[in-house]
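Hi R.,

As promised on Friday, here is the backbone we talked about, encoded as structure tokens. Could you run it through your design pipeline when you get a chance and send me back a sequence?
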């Protein structure tokens, strides 16, 4: 089998899981095997939705997340299914434990892949390297653990039937105990999964000016991003930081407002399909990477953009 790690928010599968399913189905077809899913949860999970996307579904409720527990759960599912490949969405959480899974399975680890295919008993893939400036071709012999970079793969549709559900008995690994968790309330679309990202830089001038960024993002059905300078200034939370030391995004549309275009920021967004930049400095580096640029004050341009979008929506 090919095993898919199904990430979710407790109520529904995440977009990244549907991308991973598409990749897993292609590998399974090439190998002539079935697709199984593993659904791990702290409390609740979208079992009924997950059953419609795989042929066998392994589930386990493990309590508060730790890398040790999630690695043990995925490993148990991989052993139960006899998986030749494990496919998962690329995320910080999955990156924290999938290396352990690959080591235990004596499998190759291909991370943040843009595509993948089976060729001569090996899995070939491409991924970005050197701050996303080059494309790197990689391969690994089976078994393999592979992660799928967000917004690179079509979303999987449900299958015609419903999978058998198998409850896993995952051994306890009490090396780390979660004593307390402070979780920020999430609003809107997930940054890494968003098809449209609106990012504000230091050029916005103040934290209050980000209300315009939020409004434009909401109108477009997108997510709000921020540069490191903005986060370091305490204007926005780290969860919104885009760049080398933040999140890497690859949306269809990336709107950079008051963003200068430092190389560290470009590393997190330069593979966006279309980049629109607004900056009052005509020499700002961001314009060298933008498909469309507006030289002007964000405090004048952004309200005009908001009104234009509202007019189109009406």
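Update: got your reply. Pasting your designed sequence below so it's all in one thread:
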């Amino acid at each position: 089998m090919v095993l898919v790690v199904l990430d979710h928010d407790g109520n529904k599968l995440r977009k990244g899981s549907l991308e991973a399913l598409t990749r897993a189905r292609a590998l399974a077809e090439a190998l002539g095997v079935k697709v199984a899913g593993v659904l791990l949860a702290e409390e609740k999970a979208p079992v009924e939705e997950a059953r419609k996307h795989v042929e066998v579904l392994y589930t386990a409720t493990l309590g508060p997340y730790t890398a040790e527990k999630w690695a043990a759960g995925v490993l148990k599912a991989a052993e139960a299914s006899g998986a030749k490949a494990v496919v998962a969405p690329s995320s910080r959480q999955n990156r924290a434990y999938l290396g352990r899974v690959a080591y235990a399975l004596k499998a190759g680890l291909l991370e943040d892949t843009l595509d993948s295919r089976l060729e001569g008993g090996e899995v070939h893939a491409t991924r970005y390297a050197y701050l996303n400036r080059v494309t790197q071709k990689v391969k690994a012999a089976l078994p393999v653990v592979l992660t799928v970079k967000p917004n690179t793969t079509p979303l999987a549709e449900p299958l015609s039937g419903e999978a058998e559900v198998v409850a896993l008995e995952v051994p306890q690994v009490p090396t780390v105990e979660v004593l307390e968790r402070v979780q920020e309330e999430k609003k809107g679309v997930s940054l890494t999964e968003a098809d449209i990202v609106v990012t504000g830089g230091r050029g916005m001038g103040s934290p209050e000016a980000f209300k315009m960024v939020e409004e434009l993002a909401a109108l477009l059905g997108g997510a709000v991003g921020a540069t490191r300078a903005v986060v370091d200034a305490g204007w926005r939370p780290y969860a919104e930081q885009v760049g080398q030391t933040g999140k890497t995004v690859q949306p269809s549309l990336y709107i950079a407002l008051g963003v200068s275009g430092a190389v560290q920021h470009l590393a997190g967004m330069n593979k966006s399909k279309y980049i629109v930049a607004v900056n009052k400095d005509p020499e700002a580096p961001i314009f060298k990477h933008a498909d469309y640029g507006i030289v002007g004050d964000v405090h004048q341009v952004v309200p005009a953009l908001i009104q234009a979008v509202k007019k189109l929506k009406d």
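One thing I noticed while checking it: The first strand starts at residue 2 and ends at 5.

Thanks again,
M.
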